[in-house]
Amino acid sequence: MDRSLNKTRPVLICLVLTVIVSAVYYQVCNFEFLDYDDPEYVHENSNVHNGITPETIKWAFNAGYASNWHPVTWLSHALDWQFFGSDPAGHRITNLVLHIANTLLLFIVLNQMTAAVWPSAFVAALFALHPLHVESVAWIAERKDVLSTFFLMLTIWAYIRFVRRKNILRYILIIVFFALGLMSKPMLVTLPFVLLLLDYWPLGRIGSKRSFGCLFVEKIPLFVMTIASSVITFVAQQKGGAMQPAEHLDFITRLANASISYLRYILKMFWPSRLAIFYPHSGEETSLVFAGISAALLLAITVIVLFFAKKHRYLFTGWFWYLGTLVPVIGIVQVGYQALADRYTYIPLTGLFIIIAWAADELLAKWRYRKDVLRFSALVILSVLAVVTHMQVRYWKDTITLSEHALEVTGNNFKIHFGMALTYLKQGRMDKAIYHDRQALKIIPRSITVWNNLGTALISTGRIDQAVDCFEKAVAIDPCDSEAYLNLCYLLTDKGEIDQAVSLCKKALQANPELNEIRVFLALTLVEAGRFDQAVKEYEDFLSRQPQNAVSHNDFGVVLYQQGQFDKALEHFRRAVQIDPKYDLAKKHLELTLTNIQHQPNKNTENSVK
Q1: Are 532 and 559 in contact (CB under 8 A)?
Q2: Tens of pLDDT along 45-62?
Q3: By three-state DSSP, how is residue 188 classified?
Q4: What backbone torsions phi and psi does residue 160 show, to the nearest 5 degrees?
């Protein structure tokens, strides 16, 4: 009977974990797409909308889209779109299923390594129900978190099988799962170090320097994959501009923020309140004193862990799991404008959960009522976490609810004000959009993007003079900003002030000749003003810089046609269709021009068209 119970207990635990996690997160099925990253990742990404096709696969592996290289994540989104289309419920259910799978795999691998059912179950339950993990599960764009962790757990599972019986096929399985994980999210670059930690405890494979050396050599292929993934990610993020904020933060500031963040994550683990989708970086105002205190506390904990590590090995593995897996996202290399992010704890907190579970079991080992105390404590802790997580999930139902909560629990949150302004602008609620744009400008008054957006919102409410002032301020901040110039030019042409618009375009091109959008607008404006010769010159100049621009070839063809230069017009219409075979307007112009010429072959072409 005992053997039967031992076999069925893990199955029952997995079933209970599945039910509880589903009950806590079920509400996500009724939530909308968010305006944060979801458009770029899913519902406005035409590559994803194609589903799984050879073209999509090629794009996923070649693109550094969204400042990242994670082809497996892109393919998972494409697969979701193929099944669920624009219904966000299906996309969210996939995230939830992956989170449940991660929970069960975590329990399984810990139980297999330690044979300690209840501590393993408690760690898995903490992982499943902690509020800090809501962001990774409820946010569709964070598919990369739950997907990469799924492959991390499979890699560990494959590694356990390899340790028990070594053969090349099992090692290849480790490499395959690790590769899939890296291609889901490059944060997994620390996994080879995690495997070395597991070699120390609970696998007990490290007993000497020699054994460590052998185990390190065993993982050299994984370290090579880590280096390759790091290089690819660095290039993708640099090309995408995600690392731009690092230019404005010196190394000391980034190091200080990293020290503080390590401690803040621990505090949030114990007291998960005031959670937000975005925590603004303090920048140069980062407290060096607080950073020093945080560093001292972290160092003290590390010394204590090292002191007791020989007798209590789980302390070493758990603590360095936490410290190590956070390294890629702790902010030493700054990506984005956040100080920290809840989603970054999805993998690292597991190390601290391991310490809590095994330490509690050890500390109460000699207590008479040890089992009752542990069960009651676990029940209370997990019940509280389940309730708090359920409440935290509710904030993710739509962009406005999530943003308003973020503003309640954070200060000087430029990104959230700016995001809300864009959402309200999309909804046509201009007064609210204007309010949040102005709030964002109080925080960062030299944001060109916000000045442009504010001007756009003001135009919609008929406040033209105020809009002009916004665009002029944007131009004053950056004389090479094409969007601000274009907005000003549009306003001037709408008012019939063509000469002023032409003059402004030329001024912009003097500041930066590479502003191609301005050059195209100038050409169109010159056409509207009847200055065809000047327009032709601008089109020729633009197309010498952008020879593959089908739209401009078509527009230039129209100008040439109007001037009676039909052979040249025909040439540009043909070029437009060659570049974009699906360009229907260019096809129509091409057919009309050919028909016109063919119907009047013996007459002067210019006169016949007229």
Answers
A1: yes
A2: 999 999 999 999 999 998
A3: helix
A4: -60, -45
Confidence of residue 599 (pLDDT cuts 50, 70, 90): low
Distance CA 133, CA 144 (A): 13
Q: What is the pLDDT of residues 408-432, one digit of tens each?
A: 999 999 999 999 999 999 999 999 9
Cβ atoms of 168 and 158 closer than 8 Å = no
For 118-166, the pLDDT digits (tens) are: 999 999 999 999 999 999 999 999 999 999 999 999 999 999 999 999 9
CA-CA distance, 573 to 589, in Å (whole number)? 7
CA–CA dist 91, 77 (Å, integer): 8
CB 523 within 8 A of CB 529: no
- What residue spans define the domains of the chain? 2-400, 547-610
Say how many C-beta atoms besides its own lie within 10 A of residue 231's C-beta.
10
pLDDT class of 242 with cuts at 50, 70, 90: low
Q: DSSP per residue over 334-396, as a string?
A: --SSEEE-GGGGTTTHHHHHHHHHHHHHHHTTT-TTHHHHHHHHHHHHHHHHHHHHHHHHHGG
CATH number belonging to domain 547-610: 1.25.40.10
Q: In whole angstroms, what is the distance from residue 330 CA to residue 14 CA?
A: 32
> H or E stretch including 235?
helix 220-239
Q: Are 289 and 299 in contact (CB under 8 A)?
A: no
Q: DSSP per residue over 195-208, as a string?
A: HHHHHHTTS----S
